[in-house]
Amino acid sequence: MHAELHQPNAEELSILKNQEPLVSFEIVKPFGFSEGRQSRVTLLEYTAAGTNKQVVWKRMGAGKGLTEAEAHLFESRLRPYRNGLHNFGWRVPQTRYSQVVEVGGEFQVFSYDQFIPGGDAEHLVLNPEEPNFLKWHLLREIVSQLASYPQSDIDRKTLFGADVSVLPHGLDLKLANIVSAENGVFFVDLFGPKELNEDRSWKTYSPKLDILPPENLLAVTGTREGAFLRLYRLIERHWSSIGGVTVGTLRNQLKQLLENSRLASSETNFILSEVQDDYPWLDRVYKEQNV
């Protein structure tokens, strides 16, 4: 983790002071807090009525060169997307407030979000002091949540030669976007191309935010198989790198986990085949970017 990336610059601090002139914030050194690919993120602390309170301050779209219209479009979709996730059973932090601001000649979305203690999943998986059972709990919770979508909200579609299950919305299931807290697993990424239309095209899309073309992005974030495979490959890579468990052991236990889940057998078989063969479909999706 690069803590310096969480340090706000002078212009950002000036905007914060303008938005909250009566409140004194302290920047808290983040614990288990990974920097987002599309956002700059800082943990702020303030005191009210003698109680210390914390809030996550995000500068979404930082460095992406968004126009004012683009920033307003993505800001307008934060709450609808969050509500959609919540309706399908995901735990999602509350966004207290969001606003489009101009910073350094571009437009960003500043938001102030509920802080979920516990650290993100990247910190959990890479930490050798964290027990393996917590890492399996994380995987089991994600599989359970992915399997819980009503079948009526799932479409089948052929993408890059595979028949896969398309979700009603996108899920950027990176480890940095998941927080494993005492009261459950939270998904914390709301910004960017996320929502899907009824025909499963993207409601919003911008190459400024994603280098993957729309269909490739759909394969890895908008399908049950792709979203899970992307996440599991990251977990497998990080988990095995710290020692104490082999790739073979992880794959054997993954097989048991998936076969005991509510995923359809066709989905389970495809995922296990991909993992066993070292992710040929996933690699094809990433290599055939046409960019």
Commentary on this structure:
The chain is globular, with a radius of gyration of 19 Å. It has 2 domains: 3-114, Phosphorylase Kinase, domain 1 (2-Layer Sandwich); 121-287. The chain is built from 10 helices and 9 strands. The chain starts with 9 loop residues before the first helix and ends with a helix. It has helices at residues 10-19, 68-76, 78-87, 121-126, 132-147, 214-221, 224-241, 247-259, 265-276, 280-287, and strands spanning 26-28, 39-48, 51-60, 95-103, 106-114, 155-159, 162-166, 178-181, 184-187. With 291 residues, the chain is an alpha+beta fold. Strands 1-2-3-5-4 form a 5-stranded antiparallel β-sheet, sandwiched between helices. This is Aminoglycoside phosphotransferase domain-containing protein. It comes from Candidatus Yanofskybacteria bacterium RIFCSPLOWO2_01_FULL_49_17.
